[in-house]
Amino acid sequence: MKSILKFSLIALSITLASSCDSDDNNEEQQSNPTHKISFSGSSSTDSCDVDGTYSIGVEFVSDGNSVGTNSFNGTTNFMQLSEQMDLAGNTIGIKLTLLNFDANNSNSGRGSGLESIVVNIEDLSNNISILNESLENLFICTDSVYEVVLLYNTADNTSNINYLQHGF
Predict the structure, then answer these.
(1) For residue 126, what is the DSSP state?
(2) Same domain for 44 and 23
(3) Tally of domains within the chain
(4) Where is this region: Disordered (predicted)?
(5) More confident: 70 or 18
(6) CA 46 to mean position of chain CA atoms
(7) Which secondary-structure segment (H or E) carries 81?
């Protein structure tokens, strides 16, 4: 009797473990990256006739969620900056922000910027670039363009670019 009960428990445990493994594999497949997003650009510290410092934020997004961030800070003009991340999702993208922008203080970050911005999206299934977009410069001056968000819809292969601007 004990051996039948022990055998039944072992069989039940194996059945449960197999069904859990199957669910876990499906979740892993859904989260596998399908695209690589990369950006490159040059810091700017002397626009608007002012020498300054740069502070640039990079945020990678997937389906409206932040999945990775980084920031670059410095004083070197024309410093080459770049970052990349592998992403999965229906809508993937990147947000670049001049972190020292302050709408209430025209001197905060004045003279800093990000120039020669290029965003590339690559399909990881075939390593082919499907989007290579040159973006407008970001800068802080009397008129400022301090943030850009590029979103890419992986289902219909369309992109959308939004800039945030402010005038002092």
Answers:
(1) T
(2) no
(3) 2
(4) 21-47
(5) 70
(6) 27
(7) strand 80-87
**pLDDT exceeds 70 at position 16:** no
User: In sequence order, what DSSP letters do the residues of 21-69 get, joined into one string?
Assistant: HHHHHHHHHHHS--EEEEEEEEEE-SGGG----EEEEEEEEETTEEEEE
Please give the residue range of the domain that contains residue 132: 35-167
Residue 144, both tokens: 């400022």
- Looking at the fold, whether 13 and 86 belong to one and the same domain comes out as no
Residues 3 and 81 in one domain: no
What pLDDT, in 10s, does the model give residues 19-68?
Answer: 333 333 333 333 699 999 999 999 999 888 888 899 999 999 999 999 99
Q: With 60 as the cut, is the pLDDT of residue 7 above it? A: no
Structure tokens at 2: 């004990």
Q: Are 47 and 76 members of one domain?
A: yes
| 57, 17: one domain | no
